[in-house]
Amino acid sequence: MCDRESGQNSLEIRTIPVQQAVGAVLAHDVTEIRKGEFKGPAFRKGHVVRQEDVCHLQRLGKENLFVLSLGPDDMHEDEAAVAIARSLMGEGVEIKGAPREGKITVTAARDGLLKIDVNVLRAFNMLGDVMCATLHTNTVVKKGQEVAGTRAIPLVVKKAVVDKAVQIAQQGPGTRGQGLRVLEVKEIRKPRAGVVITGNEVYHGRIKDEFAPIIAKKIEEYGGEVVGIYYAPDDERFIASVCGNC
C-alpha cells in the first residue's frame, strides 16, 4: 500500500474486533445515517479509536474494523502535526482547535506584526511529507486571525521525518536567544504622529482637505494618536519649519 494514506510507508491493514480496536487507527471512513438528520462519516479514516467510540461503532453495526498497524518508527498524522506546529511557533501565536486529518491552524494570539523566518520556512517545506503555508511576513494581523496552516501530508509519517522537520524549524535564531521563531506576532508600538499636509490649493483654502481624516483613521486603526495636523504651501522652507514642530 503506497498512496496518500501511507506516503512512502508500507503499512499493514488488519481486521480486528471493535472491542479490541481502542488505540488503533481506522483505515476507512465509518458512515452514519440518521434519517432526516444526518448522513456522513461518523468517524474518518485516520481516526484513533477511543474507548468511548466502541459503543457508537457497535450501534452503527460495526463488529469488526479495518485498522492500520503503526510500527515503532511511525507517527499518526495528528501527532506529527502537533509536533511540527509547536516547533514552528514563537511568541504571539497559538493553535486553533485540535488537529484534524493532520492539519493544524495557527492564529494570532494578539494584534501585531506577523514575522516569518522565510529561509527556515523554505527549508522546512522542501523536506517533504510536511508543509506550512503562511501569510506574508510583515503583515499586520488582528488577534484571532489565521496566520498559518501546517500539516503532516501522509496519514502515517516516519518519526525520522518529523524529527528532521522539528530540527529544521528550530534552527532559526529564536532557539539561539535572538527572539524570532519561524512564526511570530510582534507587538506594534503605538504610533504618535504629526501630519503635515502640503499644497497651495489646500493651504490657501481653495479646495477642502480630504486627506487628514483618511490618514488619521489609518493611524487610529493601529491604536495610534494624531498629535497635530498642520498645513503648508508648496514651499520647502515652510514645510521644513512645520515638520520641526511635529
Question: What composes the largest sheet?
Answer: 4 strands, antiparallel
Q: What proportion strand?
A: 25-35%
Mean of all residue-level pLDDT scores: 86
Contiguous helical run count: 7
Tell me the overall shape.
elongated
Compute the gyration radius: what is it? 27 Å
What layout of secondary structure does this protein have?
Blueprint: E1 12-17, E2 25-26, E3 30-34, E4 38-43, H1 53-59, E5 64-69, E6 74-76, H2 77-88, E7 93-100, E8 103-108, E9 112-116, H3 118-126, E10 130-134, E11 139-141, E12 146-152, E13 156-158, H4 159-169, E14 183-186, E15 192-198, H5 200-203, H6 211-221, E16 225-232, H7 236-243
Parallel strand pairs: 15-16
Antiparallel strand pairs: 1-5, 2-5, 3-4, 6-13, 7-8, 8-12, 9-11, 9-14, 10-12
Helix pairs in contact: 2-4
Structure in words:
The chain is an alpha+beta fold and about 250 residues long. It has three domains: about 10-70, Molybdopterin biosynthesis moea protein, domain 2; about 75-185, Pyrimidine nucleoside phosphorylase-like, C-terminal domain (Aldehyde Oxidoreductase, domain 3, Alpha-Beta Complex); about 190-245, no CATH class. It is built from seven helices and 16 strands. The strands form six sheets. Strands 7-8-12-10 form a four-stranded antiparallel beta sheet. A three-stranded antiparallel beta sheet has the order 1-5-2, with no helix packed on it. Helix 2 (about 75-90) runs parallel beside helix 4. The longest helix has 12 residues, at about 75-90. The chain starts with 11 loop residues before the first strand and ends with a helix. The model is unreliable at about 1-10 (pLDDT under 50).
